[in-house]
Write a structure and sequence with these properties.
Layout: H1 3-24, H2 32-37, H3 44-55, H4 58-71, H5 74-84, H6 86-103, H7 108-115, H8 119-151, H9 158-176, H10 178-207, H11 211-221, H12 236-247, H13 249-252, H14 254-257, H15 266-297, H16 307-314, H17 319-353, H18 360-382, H19 389-400, H20 404-412, H21 418-438, H22 447-463
Helix pairs in contact: 1-9, 1-10, 1-17, 3-10, 3-15, 3-17, 4-5, 4-8, 4-15, 4-17, 4-19, 5-12, 5-15, 6-15, 7-8, 8-9, 8-16, 8-17, 8-18, 8-19, 8-21, 9-10, 9-17, 9-18, 10-15, 10-17, 12-19, 15-16, 17-18, 19-21, 19-22, 20-21, 20-22, 21-22
Length: 469
């Protein structure tokens, strides 16, 4: 692929995306409710596409494809665990939306402060989110860096790719908040799904002789990739450690749970979740097939995350198709990054600073001033090149599992003691940080499992005590 064509395709994509973002902001109010929730005036279709683009990131075409290349069919089961976790969005989505409408809260952390009647709970929620979401956003930047570096044959450096993606995420977030993020997400979600379908059909039929032939090749040459634990990667402890955070993703990751505040009503919320389920299942199957295709065609890759870029760079695929797929992967990463930036900035101004003496305009200025800071630290984390995007993504979600017991308790607990929520989140997040930085797995169990165990025990034990407040 000629680097000039790649730059041209990205330039066209950036131009139209920015134009859409600017158009979405015209004639709209500039208050916090509009900036972060778009005044709940986004259409169900745009909500669905935006929710899909926010959730599915570079992790899919790079991370999940790479994990399939490395570990086999267990990656499919791992990702389907996430889709099964949508039952939590069905259960908690109506409650989140109703509470947000009744109280006017804008962020998940603000919901915690109100539910537990103490600001320290919301502050803790927001800080934990920042600690673990910055690495997750960085993994998306890494995906773009790997992609552009591989497709350009090194002419576009890894760092240059990070810089372009960081600036674009900053720009689209700044323009109009959720309005610009949601509208550009719709464009990006459409490119993501259409480009991946085209790619998998071309690779399977043109280079592998069809799906039947590909499966036969896997059965004969890589039978261990078609079973679990198969080649040994997916032991029970590994599968549980990776899948558990994924199951709770829809309520533990605030950039996703905040989208449950956005629909106009329950009907629109149901449409969004159902649409996402269809989108997600389709995208999952396609991505896994791409990972298997790369295993059949390029069995000696040192970095599994390069499975998809290697297909694009080494096969004689039409440049226009390769460019479309590249833009699709680029889109997937950007849509997740700008959603994370938007959510973290909302919690910074609403839950950490709590500048009640400032009017809406002043709070918006602070919000927009904080986004470049987020960009800077995310960029710094990304240039470390921590390998295997799938594992880094799950590691971030493992820390956010610390928020789950308090989330459930906020709506179903007979008692809602703020101390229980505070120490549950703090102990769980600390456990996750210690285990992940030391690479310890007591009794073979991964950090996400221990995080959930510790935070649940602390929440239950403190909430079961008689309140003396």
């Amino acid at each position: 692929m000629k680097t000039e064509f790649l730059i041209l395709a990205l330039s066209i994509y950036i131009f139209w995306g920015t134009l859409i973002a600017i158009f979405s902001s015209r004639g709209k109010s500039k208050n916090l409710f509009d900036y972060f929730l778009a005044s709940r005036k986004i259409s169900p279709l745009v909500n669905t596409l935006s929710y899909s683009a926010t959730t599915y990131s570079a992790f899919m075409m790079l991370g999940l494809a790479g994990l399939t290349y490395r570990a086999g069919v267990g990656a499919l089961g791992f990702e389907l665990i996430y889709l099964s976790g949508l039952i939590l969005a069905v259960i908690f989505g109506p409650k989140f939306l109703k509470f947000s409408k009744e109280t006017g809260c804008i962020t998940p952390a603000e919901l915690f402060s109100l539910k537990y009647n103490h600001p320290l709970v919301g502050i803790t929620f927001a800080l934990i989110s920042m600690i673990f979401l910055v690495p997750y956003a960085a993994s998306q930047l890494m995906g773009i860096g790997y992609l552009l570096e591989t497709l350009s044959g090194g002419k576009i450096s890894f760092v240059a790719g990070l810089a372009v993606a960081t600036f674009l995420a900053f720009l689209w977030t700044e323009i109009a908040g959720l309005r610009s993020v949601a509208t550009t997400d719709s464009l990006q979600a459409t490119i993501m799904i259409s480009s991946s379908i085209i790619l998998v059909l071309i690779v399977v039929y043109k280079y592998l002789g069809g799906f039947g032939t590909m499966i036969n090749k896997l059965v004969v040459e890589y039978p261990e990739w078609l079973s679990v634990p198969g080649n040994g990667f997916f032991s029970f402890q590994t599968f549980l450690g990776l899948s558990l955070p994924w199951f709770f993703f829809s309520i533990s990751n605030p950039q996703v749970s905040q989208r449950l505040f956005v629909p106009q009503g329950l009907k629109q919320l149901r449409q969004m979740i159902l649409g996402f389920l269809i989108y997600g299942f389709t995208y999952t199957i396609i991505t896994v097939l791409i990972g298997f295709s790369a295993r059949c065609l390029f069995p000696q890759l040192e970095n599994p995350d390069l499975a998809t870029p290697t297909i694009l760079f080494n096969l004689n695929i039409s440049p226009w198709i390769s460019l479309l797929v590249s833009v699709g992967i680029f889109s997937a990463a950007i849509s997740t990054i700008d959603s994370i930036f938007l959510t973290l900035s909302s919690m910074f101004v609403k839950d950490i600073l709590k500048k009640h003496e400032l009017d809406e305009r002043g709070q918006l200025i602070i919000t927009r001033s904080f986004i470049p800071i987020l960009c800077f630290f995310t960029f710094l984390f990304a240039i470390q090149r921590i390998n295997l995007i799938a594992l880094l993504s799950v590691a971030s979600s493992a820390g956010l599992v610390a928020l789950v017991p308090s989330t459930i308790g906020a709506f179903y607990g007979k008692k809602r003691r703020w101390q229980a929520a505070f120490f549950s989140m703090l102990s769980g997040a600390t456990t996750s940080l210690i285990l992940q930085t030391t690479n310890l797995k007591p009794f073979g169990m991964w950090p996400g499992v221990w995080t959930l165990i510790v935070s649940t025990i602390v929440f239950w034990s403190l909430n079961s005590k008689e309140s003396h407040d």
